[in-house]
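Preliminary data (for renewal application), coenzyme A complex.
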Amino acid sequence: MNKAVYAGTFDPITKGHIDVIERGTKIFNNLIVAVADNPSKNPTFSREERINQLKAITTKYPNVKVDSFGGLLIDYVRKQETNIILRGIRTISDFEYEFQMALTNRAIAPDIETIFVMACEKYSYISSRLLKEAISLGADVGLFVPAEIQEALRKKLK
Ligand code: COA
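Predicted structure:
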């Protein structure tokens, strides 16, 4: 398959996201990892910081391009001249949310398909918000976040 878009807030990028990216690189010739402008999440890292972090982490995957977008994901996917959204699915609770999102996207853009990969069970229960909370309270979350991201987060959340 040719090209897919994996979008997220990535605030911060976790090993769970990296696992999905790695799986995507094996399925698609080209994978666009797109940082969503999601003001409602009030991100800790700026869009530029998240783009730079993703670029540094994904240099080892030659078929990954890092980008960002605002507005509707389906419009962005079309602009990239593809019709595939990649998502990771981990738990039953993910399923409900992913189901809603995929069906809403399909209702407004029937030509676009969402393809799911089963994400690694090791990271099945983490969320960026919980990781930030744990780091701000002094926990070591190196199991879930690359070392350089943990360090950057620690500085930000001081
Ligand atoms: N490993 C670890 N954590 C994961 C994960 C994985 N594989 N997949 C998701 N998560 C975590 C995320 O870190 C995030 O944590 P948080 O809520 O504490 O920040 C949470 O699970 C939800 O992640 P995700 O589902 O990827 O949400 P998101 O906010 O990162 O991205 C968009 C959602 C960007 C795809 C969606 O909001 C979107 O499409 N926005 C554009 C506007 C639009 O088109 N809206 C209509 C949608 S129908």
